[in-house]
Specification:
about 160 residues; 5-stranded parallel beta sheet
Length: about 160
C-alpha cells in the first residue's frame, strides 16, 4: 500500500501523523511524507501583473531547509512502526501539488489534516483538504485535529 501523508507546519498536521503512526497497515506499506512550499509572488496580490517572486533566494533556502527538517522528523516518528518511509518537499499550490504527487506516485491513499476553517476565512483562504478530496484519483482521508491539539506538528 502507498500512503501519501500530506503535512504542513500547522496544528492540523498532528492528526494525520498520529493516524499514520497508530493504525495497523499491511506489511510493506510505504508512507511518503510530503509538504508543499507555496512561493509568494506578486500574482497573489495583483493577478494581472507579471509574476515576480516576493521571496528572496535566501528566504526560499531557509524555507526549504525547515521543510526538509520537518518531513525528516515525521519520518523518524513513523519508521519504528515498521513502515517504509520516504520524504519529499515540493513547491507549488498545495492542493494541486498534492493531487499531482499522488497521481504520479500511484498513491492508494492520501492522509491530510484539516484546519477546520469555516465561513469567510474558508472562502478567502480556501481549503487544501477540500481541493484534494475533490480532485484526487485515489482515496482521501481528512483527519481533523482534536480539541487542545498543539499549535504545531509534533517534534520527536
Amino acid at each position: 500500500m502507498k500512503i501519501l501523508l500530506a503535512i504542513d507546519d500547522s496544528h492540523s498536521a498532528a492528526a494525520p501523523i498520529r493516524e499514520a503512526a497508530t493504525r495497523s497497515w499491511p506489511e510493506g506499506t510505504v508512507v511518503r511524507v510530503m509538504t508543499v512550499l507555496e512561493p509568494i509572488s506578486s500574482a497573489a496580490y495583483i493577478p494581472e501583473a507579471p509574476m515576480v517572486p516576493l521571496t528572496s533566494p535566501l528566504e526560499l533556502q531557509v524555507q526549504q531547509d525547515e521543510a526538509l527538517g520537518m518531513v525528516a522528523s515525521v519520518a523518524r516518528m513513523l519508521a519504528p512502526q515498521g513502515l517504509i518511509v520516504e520524504t519529499v518537499v515540493r513547491q507549488g499550490a498545495p492542493g494541486r501539488t498534492i493531487v499531482e504527487e499522488a497521481a504520479e506516485w500511484g498513491a492508494d491513499l492520501i492522509l491530510i489534516g484539516s484546519h477546520g476553517r469555516t465561513g469567510l476565512r474558508r472562502v478567502l483562504m480556501g481549503s487544501v483538504a477540500q481541493y484534494v478530496t475533490a480532485h484526487a484519483r485515489c482515496s482521501v482521508e481528512v483527519v481533523r485535529s482534536g480539541p487542545g491539539e498543539e499549535e504545531h506538528a509534533p517534534e520527536p
